[in-house]
Amino acid sequence: MYSEKYAKVIVKNNSIYTDNLFTYKIPDFLLEDIQVGHRVLVPFGRSNKPIEAYIFLIANKVEDNIEFKELFDILDEHPIFKEEDINLIHWIKNRYLCTYMDCISLLHPKGYKVESFKEISLSKEIKNLDANSLYMKIDSLSKNKQFV
């Protein structure tokens, strides 16, 4: 069993009101793979809308008696920022009084973005089918372009 770890992230949002580090609990299944500089998907706001974020720090301890949301997943196999990039982003932000996202846009490779995020789950009817029936159902759905 792993000890709890937390990620401090910058959410991909251009508002000055969200221009700070947000803390998320790292789920156990990501502990071995997650690194500073990774792009991740996190629940954000009251609606917990999935939003892209960048990991700036991984910590073992955080404030006590606060319940943190868990991040959803890692978006890239390898981190897109190195430790030096993170330090440069902090320096630019402090030197030129701009937002984290202004700094990130200077260093972030263009074309990396999450347009939308959809979650699909099987209905109860599908979960109870045997393999052959499931194959036939999927085949008919793909032909008719319908959902179950």
What does this structure look like?
Keywords: ATP-binding, DNA-binding, Nucleotide-binding. InterPro entries: PriA_3primeBD, PriA_3primeBD_sf. This is Primosomal protein N. The chain has about 150 residues and is an alpha+beta fold. The chain has 2 domains: about 5-105, PriA, 3(prime) DNA-binding domain (GIY-YIG endonuclease, 3-Layer(aba) Sandwich); about 120-148, no CATH class. The chain has 4 helices and 5 strands. It has helices spanning about 85-95, 100-105, 125, 130-145; strands at about 5-10, 20-25, 40-45, 50-60, 75. The chain has a 5-stranded antiparallel sheet, with no helix packed on it. Helix 1 (about 85-95) crosses helix 2 (about 100-105).
**Overall CATH architecture of the largest domain:** 3-Layer(aba) Sandwich
Write down the oligomeric state. Answer: single chain
What top-tier CATH class of the largest domain fits best?
Answer: Alpha Beta
Strand order of the largest sheet: 2-1-4-3-5
- Mean pLDDT over the residues: 84
Task: Please give the share of residues in helix.
Answer: 25-40%
Kindly estimate the percentage of residues that lie in beta strands according to DSSP.
Answer: 15-25%
The H/E string reads EEEEEHHHH
- Stretches where pLDDT is under 50 for at least 5 consecutive residues are none
Q: List how many beta strands DSSP finds.
A: 5
How does the helix and strand content classify structurally? alpha+beta
CATH topology name of the largest domain, in short, is: GIY-YIG endonuclease
Distance between the termini: 38 Å
